Structures are given as structure tokens and as C-alpha cells.
Amino acid sequence: MAAWIMVLALTFSSSIDNLGVGISYGIRNIKISHLSNFIISIICFLFSVVGIYFGLWLSKILPGIMPVVIGSFLLVIIGLRIILLAIPRKVPVQETDGEVASAEINGLTKNIGKSGEIGFAESIFLGIGLSANALTNGLGAGLFGLNPIAICIAAAVGSFITVWGGVALGRKIAHVRIGKFTLGQFGTLISGTLLLVIAFAAFFD
């Protein structure tokens, strides 16, 4: 698989959760200002930097094709986990991986209520909650030897665009479904499947 295609695919995969969270905030009519969104994207950038440089370091000390094997295995595990989170269940659960991240920090964002807009502290917590995929995807990208600058910038830009787009969409498509899946679940399913495709393509390249 061409390096630029992998960069775009990893960016899409790490950003799809941001879209889901943006939609969930839009549904609740909570605003995420450009400044708050910028803070979130910077945190995503930093997490990507940590992940990819750790991956590059591992790729130098691991022998032969081990970096590719480990990187592929890591993405398969992450992809399967994301797919399982997207599958509808009979019991009430958070509907998307992004919504899980949103729920985890929900207790830290209770003071949003009156203003209807997240503040500085909430932006930081939300950025950290959304950057787990950027960290692990960065680690995988580092093991594959991809360009670190391209990955980190793409992750930050992707984060900004998807959060902004998610909030805008959330106000209009609160209950859109694709088959048995909500829009957020369907996006999460695509994210997990894409990671599996990247993993197998890198392994058999």
C-alpha cells in the first residue's frame, strides 16, 4: 500500500471518533468554539508525536520484519475492538467509541450547561479523551516507518475538521440510522474495518 494512502487511512480512522463526539455535542446543542477545537487538535498532534516516535524507536531496535508484524497486530487488535464497540446491543450502552470517550469525560464537563459551550479545561479533557486512537495509530505508523510529520499534521487537521463537522451535522441529523446502526455506530464500524485493511495491506506488502 502506498505510504500516502496509509497516512490518509490512518488519519480517517483516528478522526472518525472525533466526528462521533462532535455529532453527540451537536445533538445536545453544545458549541465547540474554534479555539477549543484548536486545543483539541493540538493535543491530538502531541499524542501522535509521542506514538509515532516511540514506534520509530521500536522499529530500530526490533529485528527484521518484527516492526511490521507488531504494527499489523496492534492495528488488528484496535480495529477489532472498535468494530465490537460499534455492534448494536440489546442492553443500553454508549453507541460509538467516540461517545464512550465523551461519556468518560462527561463528569468533568458538567459546567457546560449554562453557557452551552465547552471551556478551556473541558477542551483539554476532551482532547485527551479523543487522542487515544491518535496515540495508538501513531505507534503503528512509526513501526511501519511512515513520515512522522505527515502523520502528526494530518491527525491534527483531521481532528479539527471532524469535530467541527460533527457538531454541525449533529444539529441536523440527530437520529439518522443506516440499517441497524446509528450514524455514529456506522462511522465507528468503518473506522475499525479500515484499520484491519491497513494492517493486512502492510503485512502482505
TrEMBL record:
InterPro entries: Mntp/YtaF, Spore_YtaF
Bilayer-crossing regions: 38-58, 65-87, 148-169, 181-204
One Pfam family named in its UniProt record: Mntp
Signal peptide coordinates: none
Protein keywords: Cell membrane, Membrane, Transmembrane, Transmembrane helix
PANTHER family attached to this UniProt entry: MANGANESE EFFLUX PUMP MNTP-RELATED, SPORULATION PROTEIN YTAF-RELATED
Name of this chain's protein: Putative sporulation protein YtaF
Originating species: Bacillus thuringiensis
